[in-house]
Amino acid sequence: MRAVAALVFLAVMMLPLRAEPLTIFAASSLKNAFDAIGEAFTQETGAEVVFSYAGTSVLARQIEQGAPADVFVSAHPIWINYLDQRGLIDAETRDTFADNRLVLVAQSSTVFDAPPDLSSADDLLAILGGDGRLAVALVDAVPAGIYAREAMENLGVWDILQPRLAQSDNVRSALFLVARGEAPLGIVYASDAHVDEAVFAAATFPLDSHSAIRYTASRVAQSDNATADRFLAFLISQEAQQILAANGFSPLSTGEGG
Fold first, then answer.
1. What is the helix, strand, coil percentage profile of the chain, to 5?
2. What's the domain count of the chain?
3. Shared-domain flag, residues 68 and 117
4. Model's pTM, two decimal places?
5. pLDDT in tens, 108-162
6. 105-114, 207-216, 248-257: least confident range
7. Which of 51, 120, 135, 164 is the most buried (most CB within 10 A)?
8. What is the CATH number of the domain that holds 120?
9. Both 81 and 92 in a single domain?
10. Strand partners, 73
11. What are the C-alpha distances in Å from 248 to residues 147, 149, 201, 228?
12. What range does the domain containing 151 cover?
């Protein structure tokens, strides 16, 4: 499939561009990487790119309500499936381009005698202290929160930790709670910890504790901007994949189309 995609990339990159900017709705965890990818894409093609970052669930709802987007980039299949089932994306352009990991973060100044035990509620409660909170994205809607809840449930700590959660509307907001010292711990993506020096990844959740974290992009069905296909092709180019890797993602390591 990747060989075919490479040929598509070469063919699509030769298509003429439209003048209007390309509007991309992307999961907030992609901001640093996509800002750099957008600059590289503009430099190579001359096309102007405008990004709108938010929680994937928020972006999907905005597209459902008619928001003018050309490309949708989801951090969880639930939301791209949601739009697909409603005919709001072009399923033929849908593809996975990167993976991520789920980590427990703490402020960089925090010192642990041993790495936190993710399967021990007592260990995590001791770190949180009497009134400390565990920062997470919304566990019933935002992908990072959905993955976090799944991991905590599978590790047997959800029932005890759930009352101590501080939920935010996107993963970057959860990260900032820890970076500012408003929460002793947080559950975010490895890529988030990678770009913020105020925090560090104290522990990494086992891969089998949650669903695979895969980023999928698709052209929005209502878009007639041909530049969208060029951007989707660019995402699997070597240049874009190197940018993703430099920002803490795992480019195409386990990714699959769809």
1. 45, 20, 35
2. 2
3. no
4. 0.86
5. 999 998 899 999 999 999 999 999 999 999 999 999 999 999 999 999 999 999 9
6. 248-257
7. 135
8. 3.40.190.10
9. yes
10. 26, 217
11. 18, 22, 12, 25
12. 102-204
